[in-house]
Write a structure and sequence with these properties.
Elements: E1 4-6, E2 36-38, H1 39-60, E3 67-69, H2 71-82, H3 87-96, H4 105-120, E4 126-137, H5 144-154, E5 157-161, H6 166-178, E6 195-208, E7 219-224, E8 230-247, E9 250-256, E10 262-269, H7 273-279, H8 282-293, E11 299-306, E12 308-315, H9 317-322, E13 344-357, E14 361-374, E15 383-385, E16 390-396, E17 401-408
Parallel strand pairs: 4-5, 11-15
Antiparallel strand pairs: 1-2, 3-17, 4-6, 6-14, 7-8, 8-9, 8-11, 9-10, 10-16, 12-13, 13-14, 16-17
Helix pairs in contact: 1-2, 1-7
C-alpha cells in the first residue's frame, strides 16, 4: 500500500437533471471534496467497514423488524473504551474492531481525529455532527492519562456527576438529545447503583438529496413484506440521478446527497432478505461500492422508493462477545486498568438510532452508550423499484466510510 492515499476527485456534473436539484434554476454541484488519508488511515477505514458489516449481520440474524445501526458511532465509543483496556481485554477489543495488528493505540487515535475533523467539514450542504462524552460517578477515581486522551484525541465532554440524583440521569439524556437534534431524547431509564462511568458517542446526519423527489409524484404503492403478503406504503417517485449495479442475488442503487460525498446505498435481494443478510460480508459491500465508484456519472433513472421513519434500540453485548470482545464484559476478568485501579467491567454496550427518509432527503442519528460498573461478585435499467424488504446504508463515498446500515422489513412499522 502506498505511504499516503489521496482520494481521487470525481467531477460528476450531469446535464439534464437540474429539474431534480434543490435549486431548479441551477445545475447541482456534484463535485465531492477530497479527503486526505495516510495509508494507515485508509486501512483503518477498510477494516472498520468490516467491523460494521459483521455487527450488522449478527444483529440482523436476531431481528425480523426494521433496524439501523451506526458502525461509526459504535467504533468511536469502543475505541474510547480501548484506550482504557490492557492485556487480553485490549487485544480482544482491538481484534473485534478489526484494527491492524501492528497499529498502536496512539496511531488509532490519530486516524480517528483526522477522519472526524475532515468528515465534519466535507460538505456544506450536509449537516454532520459527532460528539463524545465521559460521565463518571463523583468520588470515583479515574486515571488522568485516560481523561487527557479523551479530551485531547476525542474532544470529549467530561463531567463527574452524582449518580444517585435524578439530575445526573437528566444530564446524560439531555446530552444525547442535544447532540442528535432531539431525535434521540433518552438513552437511559435509570442509573445502576454499581455504575461508575458512561462512555458515549453521538452521531447526527442530515442531508438533502442531490436530486430531490417531487412530492406531487408520491403515491400509495404495494410493498411486499414477504413472498405473498403486501402493504400499501407512501412511495416516492422521481427521475433522479443515481447509479445502479447488480450482483449474484441482488440489485443495488446509490443516491447522492449534497455535493455527493455522502450517499445512500440501497441493496434489494433477489430472494429472501434473511438469507441475503446472512451471506452479506465486507467482500460483497466492497464489490457494490467499487462498482458505483467505477461509474462516472449519476444517470437519470425513474426510482420508486418508500418513505420510512423509525427509531431503534439494541443492546449489543451478545453480538460483540460473538465477535471476540469477551473479557471486557466479565466481572473480575475485565482489565480496564487504563481507566481506574478499581475492579470494573463493561456492563452493557447499547445503541439508540433514528432515521427518516422522505422526498427532501435523510435525517439519521445514533448514540452509542457504554456502561461501566464496579465489580461485585454475584453472577442501469429504466426503472428501479424498491417494493420488498431491503438493506440500506449511508457512506462517505470518497473514503467508503460506513456511517449507518440497516434494513427495512415494513416501512409502516
Amino acid at each position: 500500500m502506498k505511504n499516503s492515499v489521496l482520494i481521487i476527485l470525481y467531477f460528476l456534473a450531469l446535464a439534464g437533471l437540474s429539474s431534480c436539484s434543490k435549486d431548479p434554476g441551477q445545475e447541482p454541484d456534484l463535485t465531492p471534496k477530497t479527503l486526505e488519508l495516510t495509508a494507515k488511515g485508509a486501512e483503518v477505514i477498510a477494516y472498520g467497514n468490516d467491523f460494521g458489516i459483521e455487527l450488522f449481520t449478527k444483529v440482523a440474524a436476531d431481528e425480523d423488524k426494521n433496524f439501523m445501526l451506526s458502525p461509526l458511532s459504535a467504533s468511536a465509543a469502543l475505541t474510547m473504551l480501548l484506550n482504557g483496556c490492557a492485556g487480553d481485554t485490549y487485544d480482544q477489543l482491538k481484534t473485534t474492531l478489526k484494527y491492524p495488528e501492528g497499529m498502536s493505540i496512539s496511531e488509532i487515535n490519530e486516524v480517528y481525529k483526522s477522519l472526524v475533523s475532515q468528515l465534519l467539514d466535507i460538505d456544506p450542504k450536509v449537516k454532520l455532527a459527532i460528539a463524545n462524552a465521559i460521565f463518571y460517578r463523583q468520588g470515583f477515581t479515574v486515571k488522568n492519562p485516560f481523561l487527557s486522551t479523551m479530551e485531547n484525541d476525542f474532544d470529549a465532554e467530561i463531567a463527574g456527576l452524582d449518580f444517585t440524583l435524578q439530575s445526573a440521569l437528566n444530564t446524560i439524556n439531555k446530552w444525547a438529545s442535544d447532540n442528535t437534534n432531539g431525535k434521540i431524547p433518552k438513552v437511559l431509564d435509570e442509573i445502576s447503583s454499581d455504575a461508575v462511568m458512561f462512555i458515549m458517542n453521538a452521531l447526527y446526519f442530515k442531508g438533502d438529496w442531490s436530486y430531490q423527489f417531487d412530492k406531487a409524484l408520491t403515491s400509495q404503492r404495494a410493498f411486499y413484506t414477504d413472498g405473498s403478503n403486501s402493504v400499501n406504503v407512501s412511495t416516492m417517485k422521481g427521475d433522479v440521478g443515481s447509479k445502479v449495479t447488480t450482483g449474484d442475488g441482488y440489485k443495488a442503487i446509490e443516491l447522492p446527497y449534497g455535493q455527493t460525498n455522502f450517499t445512500m446505498v440501497v441493496i434489494v435481494p433477489a430472494g429472501n432478505l434473511t438469507d441475503f443478510t446472512a451471506s452479506l460480508d465486507a467482500g460483497i459491500w466492497n464489490a457494490i461500492t467499487s462498482a458505483f465508484d467505477g461509474i462516472e456519472k449519476y444517470g437519470e433513472l425513474t426510482v420508486y422508493m418508500p418513505k420510512f421513519k423509525f427509531s431503534y434500540e439494541k443492546y449489543l453485548n451478545d453480538q460483540l462477545q460473538g465477535m471476540g470482545m469477551v473479557d471486557a464484559f466479565i466481572p473480575g476478568v475485565a482489565d480496564l486498568s487504563g481507566i481506574s485501579d478499581a475492579s470494573i467491567f463493561v456492563s452493557f454496550v447499547k445503541q439508540n438510532t433514528f432515521v427518516e427518509v422522505d422526498e427532501k432527503g435523510t435525517e439519521a442519528a445514533a448514540v452509542t452508550t457504554i456502561g461501566v460498573e464496579v465489580t461485585s461478585f454475584p453472577p442501469q435499467p429504466r426503472e428501479f423499484v424498491i417494493d420488498k424488504p431491503f438493506v440500506f446504508a449511508i457512506r462517505e463515498r470518497t473514503t467508503n466510510s460506513l456511517l449507518f446500515i440497516g434494513q427495512v422489513i415494513n416501512p409502516l412499522d
